[in-house]
Specification:
By secondary structure, the chain is mainly α. The two termini are about 60 Å apart.
């Protein structure tokens, strides 16, 4: 049936204004919103048709909801593919064309490696890390931050270069509510770059998209754009068809027919002017119905009426097609029904000609991935129509059809043996929809897709969705069965590994188990399987989730158990033992500094002596070795062994600077900067911190907990110079905002304390300062992070002294001392500072007996640390360059609470508790 397009002139004018501004060199973003069935897809297609010969190149792509979780950067890779088919001079253009021509469109890393060969080595390294991660569960997903950021930036550059080199580019993206997360990240980066570029965007989404989880994310992002780029972003709501347009559509669809008077008005009243509903009702009309033609009151009724008029054999084909999805293949229908494929094709042709409902897609219009398939492709006229037809079957029949469709898709004729990624997604979706009978196969299919998404696409967000689907399928298997337990362990271990960067300590909900609940479930399954290696791995995983959810003490017990479980694996378990020792050794110093150092040294010795562990090509072992060396260095610093700490940290930083893949560099620079501050070398410390921040910013990391921490330390240094007070407050505020969004469990109280200290030092926002401190005290009482708790008590004691409340300041000092006396020397906490602040508060409260001896203990601590500094100049700088040390060893009265005395109140762990 020939397409008819009526009205929409206002909407076309709005779209036309975007194109007109673009032709003048002004880029913009237009959001098109419409209720389902309002014709936004047809509107975009008509606009593209009308502008085909204009001064701007118009490209229309869709987010492909038929595949449920479209591939990463899907609409933008589709756009680059379409642009590659249009020849134009220029080496850069042909380079992208060659990359797409070799099939690299299958995955963003492959496409970018082919188009920009210099990136190939980086992506290869990232894939090695990703493969190690899914194999061992030992590397969290943020290790791939630089590579993900590089891919996003390079795709943004590619789109902008296409616009600059090939002429103004107007990209229309339909169904944005189905957009993949990587594409949203790309848009977020692209928008600020549009000013002055010959590039414009039109994004369409359903008016009720925000009711869905993915749509809500898109809506929130658009609101953020409107706030930050209000002159760049506009919205347009597509209205219903007016009466006259419905009348025109009636005349076009029913020419020379005796249409009853008032029919068009009745049609408008019943359908609300929704084009798709109008079309369905018009296809019901028959000559002779007269003025009393019975119009259905709901869209499904209109579809049901049309469905009943179709031959039963064709009806079965239509139901099978609708069960498959918004599009289907004749080969699939033939396999499921048992009819010859040519017979199926003939029946589908008759259906399209007599009744509409479906349209055969031209081969040239098929997505690139489908062109290697020997199939003919059919689309339903509208998503709502497909959904209605799908309901024309009983539940049992639907499950059976899904099962048969999955089998049929596996037999699809194709060039080569391997099924395209998109077909594998379709098969997994069909197996899942087939219910418990195919649950095991569905779980395997989704888990395989998840691993592929990580290793091939370097896409952890996509892999997360597949893991969730795998778990949904696993839970349909009989409880306690080995088949269920093994799949459960695999899916949970992968899911928690790739989401570790986002752990926030949440307990989850009834529908979405929290991270510790999942880890406990995997641990129990591993024990039922009685597999020593799985038990060791899941016990370690449980220790990490306990740290995030329940705090330090439960975590340490589980991590210690993980070490013992790894020992039980014998020599074959050395790899697991090394990783477990590193993790345990990095958390134990928070409770017992010397015991933690012993564990870290044991890990170092094992790495040096056990066969195979010194393989520097293994990214898991390399990552763990780097973390172990950094942690030893920083804990030596905590223990006052400054000379050894400086040697180790400088060696680690130098090695990381020389590596191609430098994930741990911002952490190592942070540790070395903290030591430099403690040694009185604040200028060097600030230089190291700025290097760390530039490193992450240069790679486009986006939000980062370590970037926030480093910025907070720069704020602390700046706060000690009155002329930099405004800078200090701004940096501290930005650091806390970034921390709130990343929420790395170990860094939250640290950055919050630093923010409070900066405000105390510059004398700003006392109420906010106290609230920040109170929040840390409440949080650390639950998590057991006592070093942050002591630091918070010291800060509140200082604040209360400044407010003239000595008795309350003394109470905080007593609490800090009590925790310190119970726990002993702690990492990242300057014991001498705790003694000094307690002395000041207790003296001010006239509790001189309690204050007696505290200054001497503080002075002894400073001298002990100075004894560990071998280089005379560095030792002298430590004694005279640090305000607190100078005050303790000279005239105590010269050191005031208002002075920037707290050097390093707290110190973090590696990324997400690494």
């Amino acid at each position: 049936m020939t397409a008819v397009f009526v009205d929409r002139e206002d909407s076309l004018d709005v779209l036309g204004s975007v194109a007109a501004r673009l032709a003048e060199g002004v880029g913009s973003v237009l959001i098109i919103e419409a209720d389902s069935g309002m014709g936004k897809t047809s509107l975009l297609a008509e606009f593209r048709r009308r502008t085909a010969a204009g001064p701007c190149r118009t490209v229309l792509v869709s987010c492909m909801p038929g595949l449920g979780t479209g591939r990463e950067y899907g609409p933008f890779l589709d756009a680059l593919t379409e642009l590659s088919t249009v020849p134009r001079p220029g080496q850069r253009r042909s380079r992208w064309a060659r990359a797409v021509g070799r099939g690299a469109i299958a995955a963003a890393p492959t496409l970018l490696s082919a188009a920009l060969p210099g990136l190939g080595e980086l992506f290869s390294a990232g894939r090695a890390v990703a493969e190690a991660s899914v194999t061992t569960g030992s590397i969290p997903g943020d290790s791939l931050g630089p590579i993900r950021a590089t891919m996003t930036r390079q795709l943004v550059n590619a789109l902008l270069e296409e616009a600059r080199d090939g002429g103004p580019l107007l990209l229309l993206i339909d169904d944005m509510e189905w957009c993949d997360e990587e594409s949203l990240e790309l848009l977020h980066l692209l928008l600020p770059s549009l000013e002055g570029e010959p590039f414009a965007l039109v994004l369409s989404l359903g008016a009720f998209a925000s009711a869905t989880p993915r749509g809500a994310v898109v809506e929130q992002m658009i609101r953020g754009w409107e706030n930050r780029h209000n002159l760049l972003v506009a919205r347009h709501q597509v209205p219903p068809l007016p009466d006259w347009a419905v009348g025109e559509l009636v005349r076009e669809r029913l020419p020379s027919r005796p249409v009853p008077t008032g029919f068009a008005q009745r049609l408008t009243d019943v359908t609300g002017g929704r084009p798709v509903f109008v079309e369905q009702c018009l296809k019901l009309w028959q000559p002779g119905y007269g003025a009393e033609v019975p119009l259905p009151e709901k869209f499904p009724d209109a579809v049901a009426d049309r469905f009943e008029r179709i031959d039963p054999d064709v009806r079965e084909l239509l139901v099978v097609g609708a069960t498959m999805g918004e599009f289907f293949f004749s080969h699939t229908l033939a396999e499921v029904t048992g009819l010859p494929q040519t017979r199926v094709q003939d029946l589908l042709l008759q259906l399209e000609r007599r009744h509409g409902m479906i349209r055969e897609r031209r081969r040239a219009d098929m997505p690139r991935w489908a062109r290697a398939l020997h199939v003919d492709w059919y689309d339903f006229e509208h998503r709502a129509l497909q959904a209605c037809v799908r309901e024309e079957q009983h539940e049992g029949a639907r499950l059976l059809r899904h099962s048969r469709i999955a089998d049929a898709l596996g037999k699809i004729p194709r060039t080569g043996d391997e099924l395209p990624y998109e077909v594998r997604v379709l098969i997994a979706d069909q197996l899942r929809a087939a219910g418990p009978a195919r649950a095991a196969e569905s779980a395997t299919a989704y888990y395989t897709l998840a691993r592929s998404a990580v290793v091939e696409d370097l896409s952890f967000s996509q892999a997360e969705r597949y893991c969730q689907s795998a778990l949904d399928s696993v839970r349909q298997l009989p409880e306690g069965s080995p088949e269920r337990d093994r799949r459960l362990v695999d899916a949970i271990e992968l899911l928690l590994s790739i989401t570790e960067v986002r752990w926030k300590g949440g307990q989850g909900s009834a529908d979405t188990p929290g991270i510790d609940t999942l880890a406990a479930e995997a641990e129990a399954a591993a024990r039922r399987l009685d597999d020593p290696f799985l038990i060791a791995r899941t016990t370690l995983l449980r220790g990490k989730t306990l740290l995030a959810v329940k705090g330090l003490n439960p975590s340490l017990l589980k991590l210690e158990e993980a070490v013992e479980r790894a020992r039980e694996c014998g020599p074959d378990g050395n790899r697991a033992l090394f990783v477990a020792l590193v993790e345990y050794g990095r958390q134990l110093p928070k409770r017992d500094l010397e015991a933690g150092l012993r564990v870290l040294f044991e890990a170092e010795e094992l790495y040096a002596s056990a066969p195979g562990l010194g393989d520097t090509a293994d990214p898991v072992l390399q990552h763990a070795r780097n973390l172990n060396e950094m942690q030893i260095g920083v804990n030596l610093f905590d223990a006052g062994r400054f000379g050894e700490a400086l040697q180790r940290l400088e060696r680690c930083v130098d090695r990381l600077r020389a590596e191609r893949y430098r994930v741990e560099l911002p952490i190592a620079l942070n540790y070395l900067a903290q030591l430099s501050i403690a040694l009185g070398s604040e200028e060097r410390a600030e230089s190291l911190l700025m290097e760390a921040m530039r490193f992450e910013e240069g790679l486009g990391y986006g939000l980062s907990g370590w970037h926030a921490y480093n910025n907070a330390l720069v704020a602390l240094i700046a706060s000690r110079t009155p002329a930099r007070a405004e800078e200090a407050v701004r940096r501290a505020r930005d650091a806390w905002a970034e921390t709130e969004q990343t929420w790395l469990v170990n860094l939250v109280p640290i950055v919050r304390n630093l923010y409070a200290e900066v405000l105390l030092t510059v004398g700003r926002e006392r109420r906010l300062t106290l609230r920040l401190i109170d929040d840390t005290l409440a949080e650390t009482a639950e998590t057991g992070m006592d070093r942050s708790r002591i630091a918070a008590h010291c800060l509140r004691s200082r604040g209360r002294l400044l407010e003239g409340r000595p008795e309350e300041a003394a109470e905080d000092a007593r609490l800090a001392l009590a925790i310190l006396e119970e726990r002993g020397t702690m990492p990242a906490l300057r014991t001498e500072e705790v003694f000094y602040e307690a002395h000041r508060a207790l003296t001010a409260a006239d509790a001189r007996a309690e204050a007696a001896g505290l200054l001497e203990r503080a002075r002894d601590e400073v001298l002990r640390k100075a004894g560990g500094i071998d280089e005379p100049e560095a030792r002298e700088r430590f004694l005279t360059g640090v305000p607190l040390n100078r005050a303790l060893l000279g005239a105590i009265g010269e050191y005031r609470a208002e002075d920037p005395g707290v050097t390093v109140p707290d110190q973090g762990e590696s990324r997400m508790g690494e």
